[in-house]
C-alpha cells in the first residue's frame, strides 16, 4: 500500500514537472507550437503532447488540477505567440530600415501633444466615483503590451507605404512582407451605436491577425475619437481611396473580390480536406476581399479556423456592417486561447472601448461640462435610455405604458424611491432621514414623454425616505437624425449614461448597449411589449445576464466544413460561456457571459467543458 501511494505521488510530481518543462520550452521559444502560420497556438498538438501526462495521473484524482495547468499553459503560450508575431511582422515590415522602426521619446511626446486625449487619463476616475457599483475592470498588462506592439506595426507599415501612396499601393496590387490591411467601415443607415460596435469588431480582429486597421473618413469616427495607435493614424480618406460600394460594376471591382470567391478557391483546392489543410495550409490568389454576407455581419464560415487560414494570404480585407460580433471571435478555435488570456472575465468590449474608442478632447470637454452642471454630487445616479423605434407612432401608442413600467421597475429593484404613503406627511419622512439624499436620473430619449410624466406625477410627491429626485434630459429630437453634430451629441449622452450606478435600457438598442459596455454595467431591459389579454401582467423589466452586448441575428451553429469536430454543432455547446441572449433583448442572438463582481461566472460553465477553469 505504501509503495502504491509512493508511486502515485511520484507520478503526480512527474506529471506536473512535464507540464512545467513544456511551459518553459514554449515560453522561451525553444519549442514553437503552431500549424502553418496559424494565428493561435495549435491546441490539438499541445493537448496531444501532454495527454499522456493527464492520463497517467487521472487515477489519482488530479485530472482537474492538470486541466487547469494545461489551460493556463495554452492561454499564456497563445498570447506570447501573438506578441511574437506582431514583433516579427514589424521587423519584416521595416525591411531592415532602422529609421522606420525608431520612434524616439521626443517623437512620442510630440505625437501625444498633437493628438491630445484627456479622456485616456481622466475616464477611470469618472467610473471609480460611483457609490453603488464596483467597477470591475480587467487588470491585465498583457493587453497593454499587445496594443503597444500593434501600434508599432501600424506605424511602421504606414511609414513604409506612405500615407499619400496608399491608393497607388492598392491600385498596383503591391505587397510588403509583414503588412496587411483591414478597412473598418459600417453600413449606412445605422446610428452611432451600430457604427462604434461594428468598427470595434474589426479593430479587435485586425489586432489578432496583425492587420493595419484603417477607418474611412466617411464613418465620421475619426472626427469623434482620439487616435488610438501611438505614432500612427487610422484615418483613411474615403474620397481618395477606392472603398468598395455595393455597385459591382465600378472601376475597382476587378481588384475587390467577394469573400465567396475566397471560399470557392478553398473548396476547389485539389484534395480539399481537413487533414490536407492541416498539413498544407491553403493560400488565396485574391488580393482584396469584401467580407460581409449582407450589410450586417460576416457569414458563418468566417468564424472557422481553415477559412481564417486562407484569409491570411489576402492583403486587403474590407469589413462593413452594423452588428456587434465579437462573441463569435471567441468561437474561432485559433483565437480562443488568446482572447481568454487577454480578457479573463470576458469583459472584452469594455476593455477595448476604454482603450481604443475614446472621445476626442472637444467631445470629452462637453461630457465633463454636462456632468458637472447636471449630475455632479449625486448620491445615486440612474440612467434611462428609452428608444421608440417607430418614432412618433410608437411613442403615441406606448408612452403611457413605458412610463408606468419605468417606475415599477425602479421600485421593484430599489433604485427609484417609492412614493410616501398618502397618510404620512413629507415632514415625518424627512425627519426620519438625517440628511438629504439626492438621486439624479439622466434620460436619453428622442421624446420628452417620461420627463414630462415624472415631473408631474412622481418628482414633486413625497418619497418614502424623503429622497430628492432630479431628472435631466439634454435632447429630444423626436426622430432619428444623422451627421457629425448628431453623433457628437449621441456620444456625450452615451457616456453620461455609462456613468450611472443603475442603467435601464431599451431592448435591441445599440445606443444603450454602448452605455452598458463603456460603463461595465449589467442593465435592466425595459419591457415594451403589451400585456396579452387574459394573461398575467408582464414584468416591467428584466435584468441582463451579462455586461456583454448581444450579437443580434447571430447564427447559433458552426458552419465549418473542414473542421468536423465543430461543424454543425451548437456554438454554446462547444464554448459554454457563449450563450443565447435573453428573449426580451433578442430572439436569435449570442453573447459572452461575463464574470460578476465577486469573480464568479454569471453563467456556470458546463462541468465537462475543457474551458471550465478560467480563473
From TrEMBL:
A Pfam family per the record: XG_FTase
Enzyme superclass (EC): transferase
Gene Ontology CC terms: Golgi cisterna membrane
GO molecular function per UniProt: glycosyltransferase activity
One of the protein's GO biological processes: cell wall organization
The protein's Enzyme Commission number: 2.4.1.-
Entry keywords, A to Z: Cell wall biogenesis/degradation, Glycoprotein, Glycosyltransferase, Golgi apparatus, Transferase
Record's subcellular location: Golgi apparatus, Golgi stack membrane
InterPro entries: XG_FTase (IPR004938)
Membrane topology reported for the UniProt record: Single-pass type II membrane protein
PANTHER family: FUCOSYLTRANSFERASE (PTHR31889:SF86), FUCOSYLTRANSFERASE 2-RELATED (PTHR31889)
Function: May be involved in cell wall biosynthesis.
Similarity comment text for this entry: Belongs to the glycosyltransferase 37 family.
Protein name stated in the entry: Fucosyltransferase
Species of origin: Riccia fluitans
